């Protein structure tokens, strides 16, 4: 373990437990709601920085702490933490975060946006499927849940994906997943499914990691924030 995550808020989970996370308000004090879902390293300083950046761009942004205070920068340990994470508890933390934001006095939207990175990209799409119309838009970055096990028909949010060409994730599988979401009957025209692929490696937005790509990160960030503003209402 390498750092202690900063938690500044707590919230009830639907399973009766208590979730914790890092919340930031925009400079105006009010804005649309956004759940930020951590990478497999935990609620690190990088994830806190993402929350602050989203807040600076106008969102009421909350990153739930899915690992309960644990973080790491060791790949083997991160893999272990992810494997040991009870899916039901993570789902409860994320659902509790949605509840907190939609009831928060600073939130101006009736839906939430979800932005997830790495492991969080997979959880972001899963959360969108679980929460249905409560999620207005979801922007997964280089993460994907099990394609065959995910109920894509339940992802009614607008979707904008950001994936890397040089990644361990098979782009064929990514295209399959996005094709399934586009192919769901009855999807409203104002809830598009977009996919952007960058000539970069996994975790290209993480400015503290070896794969950081400033140009790809800047382009993806501008696209994602514009998309979220347009669809989280």
From TrEMBL:
Start and end residues of each stretch annotated as Disordered: 1-25
MF terms in GO: hydrolase activity
Domain Dienelactone hydrolase: 21-231
Biased composition (Polar residues): 1-11
Record-linked Pfam families: DLH
InterPro entries: AB_hydrolase_fold (IPR029058), Dienelactn_hydro (IPR002925), Dienelactone_hydrolase-like (IPR051049)
Name this protein carries in UniProt: Carboxymethylenebutenolidase
Organism field: Pseudokineococcus lusitanus
């Amino acid at each position: 373990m390498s750092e202690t995550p900063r938690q500044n808020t707590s919230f009830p989970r639907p399973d009766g437990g208590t979730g914790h996370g890092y919340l930031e308000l925009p400079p105006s004090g009010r804005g649309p709601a956004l759940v930020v879902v951590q990478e497999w390293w935990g609620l690190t300083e990088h994830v806190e920085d993402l929350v602050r950046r989203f807040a600076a761009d106008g969102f009421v942004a909350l990153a739930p702490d899915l690992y309960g205070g644990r973080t790491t920068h060791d790949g083997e340990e991160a893999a272990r933490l992810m494997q040991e994470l009870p899916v039901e508890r993570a789902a409860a933390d994320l659902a509790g975060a949605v509840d907190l934001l939609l009831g928060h006095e600073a939130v101006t939207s009736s839906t939430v946006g979800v932005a997830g990175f790495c492991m969080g990209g997979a959880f972001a799409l899963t959360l969108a499927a679980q929460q249905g119309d409560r999620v207005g838009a979801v922007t997964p970055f280089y993460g994907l849940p099990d394609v065959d096990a995910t109920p894509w028909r339940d992802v009614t949010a607008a979707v904008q994906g950001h994936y890397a060409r040089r990644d361990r994730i098979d782009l064929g599988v990514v295209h399959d997943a996005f094709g399934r979401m586009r192919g769901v009957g009855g999807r409203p025209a104002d809830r598009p499914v977009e996919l952007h692929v960058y000539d970069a490696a996994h975790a290209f937005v993480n400015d503290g990691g070896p794969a950081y790509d400033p140009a790809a990160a800047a382009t993806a960030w501008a696209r994602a924030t514009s998309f979220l503003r347009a669809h989280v209402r």
